[in-house]
């Protein structure tokens, strides 16, 4: 078996064309996602007449900072061909942990890092199972999901209100003027997107992530630190889930044992819609951001149409099928 070149491992493999065409081809799924987003905005404007407004764009980000952060961490995991089913449960556990600690009188400067650390530790447990004991990511993260959800129920069986200015400041404070606005939580989420983009595309760690997803055996033969990298990506995902737990607690101003139910599937859907291939090796964190915006825009459009919210899942399901078929066709083109 021949080892792939670094360019091939970084999501551009299988195309015998020039570097510019290779790069354009690699960005095609992201371009398709952005095109769908723009078409949805155009269709909404034509149908409703007053759809695309500064307030809509601002609320599109304001309603989804925790999902953006989850999608960032999930992108790292899926790029290696793995999956993390624990992130939604981590949101519940970290939120309840924060609620209990705030009720005990601890300040935000102590509680918020501990909320994030709870996600980091669960991610580390999953990473050890995957990297050290070679357990399938689905099984390892499923165990992490049950662990985090169980810890949430042990912490509290009911919703606990959170009244803390430090936590509520993240999404309760608006910056901007007129109809344009943003919040500190949204800024934090976008900064994490930018940091993830830099790590994935301008560091050795990022190149190793792509190489593992492209061909793990070749990555080992090239002497890349496969085990350490796989451990770290689950730590990153768990940390992201902890941060998302902080943002979600700020959004709801409470901790709830049922928080985050199904949110891991929403994050996976956003990443796939954003063009990251589930088998790994190809994808971009900017595409995941676009996938979250598509998901959020569908929810807003469903609300505008005054139909049942379950239609959101139907539309997302159709989009997922379309993107999976598109990815398969693109993969076949690359192999050809």
UniProtKB/TrEMBL annotation:
Keyword Protein biosynthesis: no
Keyword list, A-Z: Cell membrane, Membrane, Transmembrane, Transmembrane helix
Sequence intervals crossing the membrane: 26-46, 66-83, 90-110, 116-135, 142-160, 180-200, 231-252, 258-278, 285-304, 310-330
Subcellular compartments: Cell membrane
Alphabetical list of InterPro entries matching this protein: ABC_BtuC-like, ABC_transp_permease
Protein's UniProt keywords contain Cell membrane: yes
Membrane topology (UniProt): Multi-pass membrane protein
The name this protein goes by in its record: Sugar ABC transporter permease YjfF
Organism: Gryllotalpicola daejeonensis
Lineage: Bacteria, Bacillati, Actinomycetota, Actinomycetes, Micrococcales
